[in-house]
Amino acid sequence: MKHLRGGFTLLFLLLVTVGLSHSQMSKVKTVWVVMMENHNWVGNDAGASFGDPDIKDNPLAPFVNGTLLKISAHPQQYYNPPGNHPSQPNYLWLESGTNFGFLGDSQPGQPQYFTEKHLTRLLQDAGVSWKAYAEPDFGSPVFDTCPLDFSFLDVNHLAPVYFNDINDGLNPESPECLAHVVPYYQLATDLADHTTARYNLVIPNLCHQGHEGVSPCDPSEPADNTLRSDKWLKQNLPVIMESAAYREGGAISSSGMRPKTPTSSAMARFPFSCFRRLPRAGGRRLTPIASTTTIARP
C-alpha cells in the first residue's frame, strides 16, 4: 500500500489485517478505526518542537515501529488539508466526507447538522451495525448519557454525536446515541460477549491519543505524549487482535489526525477512500455526499 496516493485527513495510518491478501480485503467483516492525534508519519519532524514528532523510526513509538509495522500496511502520502485545523473539521470529514465549511472546535449543536448522509447512518440503513467507544478524559467521570459537551471527553473527536439523527435534538437521553455511543471500557465486554458491531470507532482520551500539552494525565504513565500513546496502543490493540471477531475477518485502522505543521495540498480523498474499503452493505458502496445538508447554527 506504500504506492497509494490521495487523501489528506489521515497523517499516519496502519491497516492491520489477519494475513489477508489484497484480493481478500473484500472479505473483511469487522472494522475498528482507532483515532490517534497530531503526528505525521514522516516529514521534516517540525512537530517535534511542540511535542508532536514524526512517528516513523521514532524510539518513542517502539510498538508502532516494531510490532505493528511487521503485520500492517501503511500509506506514506496522505496529507492534511491546508487550513483544516483544529480537530472538529477533520473528524467531520471522516464521518461525512465534508467539514460543512466549519473550521473551529465546538460542542454538538454549535452548529447542529441535519443530514442522514453520513457514514454511521448509511451503514445502519444498509444493515451494517456500528458502535463508537469513547474513553473519558483522565479525571472525568464515565458517561452514561449521550456526550454532548466537554464534561466527559473531548467531544469534538466524536463526530457522530454532532448529527441530529444521532443526538435527537441534543437530547442527552437520545435512544439512538445511547445504543451506539458508549464508554470505552465496554469494548472489551462486547468482544468477550461476541456482540461486536461491524464498524467500530475507537476514541482514546486526550492523554492516550498522543495529543501534545495535555495535563493532567495518569502519573503512572509515561510523561511523553508520543510514548504514552504508543504504550496505550501496545496495551489495547491486542485486546482486539486476540478476539474472535478480529481473527474471523477483522481489520484495524490506526490513524493520527491533523498535525499543526504545514503539509501538501493534495486532493481531499481520504474519507472516500476509507469508506470504499469498508465492507459492502447490501451490495452498495457507502460514500456519503452531504451537498444537501441543513445546518442550524446557534
Describe the structure in your own words.
The chain is α/β, with parallel strands linked by helices and 298 residues long. The chain has a single domain, classed as 3-Layer(aba) Sandwich (Alkaline Phosphatase, subunit A). It is built from ten helices and nine strands. It has helices at 62-71, 87-96, 119-125, 164-167, 175-180, 186-192, 206-209, 225-241, 244-247, 270-276, and strands at residues 10-17, 30-37, 72-73, 112-114, 130-134, 181-183, 199-203, 250-257, 294-296. It is globular, with a radius of gyration of 18 Å.
Features of the shown structure:
298 residues; alpha/beta; Alkaline Phosphatase, subunit A; seven-stranded mixed beta sheet; 26% helix; disordered N terminus
Summarize the structure.
The protein has 298 residues and is of the alpha/beta class. Helices cover 26% and strands 15% of the residues. The chain is built from ten helices and nine strands.
Structural class of the helix and strand makeup?
A: alpha/beta
Outline the low-pLDDT stretches. 1-12, 258-294
Count every beta strand, where a strand is a DSSP E run of 2 or more residues. 9
CATH architecture: 3-Layer(aba) Sandwich
Task: Indicate the overall shape.
Answer: globular
Helix content: 25-40%
Q: Briefly, what CATH class?
A: Alpha Beta
- Give the helix tally: 10
- How far is it from the N-terminal to the C-terminal residue, by CA? 43 Å
Widest sheet: strand order?
3-1-8-2-7-5-6
Mean pLDDT across the residues is 80
Give the helices and strands as they follow along the chain: EEHEHEHEHHEHEHHHEHE
Q: C-alpha Rg, in Å?
A: 18 Å
